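User: Batch of two.

Assistant: Item 1 of 2:
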Amino acid sequence: MISFLGQCVLNFFTALKYVLKGNLRIKEVFNQIAAIGFDSLGICLAIVFIAASTIALQVSKQFLMSGGDSYIGGFLAVALIREIAPGFAALALAARAGTAITAQVANMQVTNQIDAIDVLKVDSIGYYFAPRIIAGAISCFYIVLLAELIGVLGGMVVAYYSIDLHPVRYFNSVWLMLVLKDIYVSLLKGLIFGGIIALVCATVGYNTRGGAKNVGESTTKSAILCTIYLLVADLIIGILFYMG
């Protein structure tokens, strides 16, 4: 685990060096944004919407019984924007797009396409990793932003139909309890999580050797590693921005 983390860090700086040299292919970045972000948008938004609606359904009546129904919107917005939207969206993105990245890079590795790039004296890590890391960060950033909006609206709909909470009271508590810092940190999480997903999955694919069976094993491994690293990164960001 530690050695793999070190390899990921080295690959990141290699890709960064590749970008700083001006070798980045902008067209490939947009292609990867379409493959990573657009194709995963529906499932990510659906998961966050369902999660927010479920939480709103569970807590609405409890808040109403204790006389705190005016705080439902704020409670849900803070929980959603701080943790649910970036966390759930990133995990869904890792499952959908991250495994696809691993499969692509692993397939190129086992069919010697990466060796061919190296023979041409092109930095294969920068060539394959840089567009995917940038595209992953941008895609996750915007998915998290949309997921937060969809989640807050979903909570409002559920609160209205479950306890007849007026949307004005709902959003009043959102404005009261939510601060800009929460939004900034959640969007920062989107950038970091997207980059982590692309970096980890591409590294797993790059390390793949063998044949088709090994490609399948690598996709499973990348999903597990992404989950671990995303949760650890979430904890570290939480400590940095909210402890104390």
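Item 2 of 2:
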Amino acid sequence: MTILVTGASGLVGARLLPRLVDAGFACLALMREGKTPPAGVSAVEADLLDPISLAKAVEGVSAIIHLAAVFRTPDTDLIWKSNLEGTRNLIAAARAHVPEVRFILASTSNIYDASTARPGLETDAVDPQQAYPASKLAAENVLRESGLTWCVQRFGFIYGDGDGHLEELPRLVTNFKMHPAQRMSMVHHRDIATVMTLALTGAMDGHVVNIADEAPTSIYELVGLAGGTMEPSSEPLINPWHLHMDVSLARSLGFQPVVRTVHQAAREMLM
């Protein structure tokens, strides 16, 4: 099986690709000119916003893992252009040149309504107002209507393998005035590989699936694990299910995380 991976140089892609190679997959990394892929991975020079370049990129592949996304910018036009138009272009290339391909799209738990009355469920009606989750939802819908064999994976807070994501939390909780009792669904990079390997078998075809570990963890605990401090509070938590996903579907489809909690990751020095 030959897999094309976008976002290969990002925090997720750079950690996923070596694991896919170790698992025996032939991997191609869609990269712009001058970028170097991880060891054991071949680079395919292309740009998601250049439809002509994508025809060569998808040639001969049996699966596409689409990780590339833009979100850490105030430029909402760039977010929409990259996340929706780029995905649409890649889907069009796949339909034209490799219509039997399996297309796996990475998405986000941020799609769910902050005021949900229970953990976010894949079948919930959603209408995100921020550009990043809104653009990801639009990309999901394009894929679902594409006629390709597809799977959408909505990830919780991704961390581990020295990616620095958790270490940013003390700053983020201050900027966004997060409540210390708020719990987040989490997923370690190791289990991005776990679930991608499962999805490549076809076990998740035709599904939007929430992907997270066994233990949503409080912001207060996470800040402490990141080496920071946070003022405690006993004030009521207004939206207790915000950032918390229901992962029942993933478990029923066979996904079992290897890193079950962030505390396990800390104990086993996987942070």
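Residues 184 and 252 are 21 Å apart (CA to CA).
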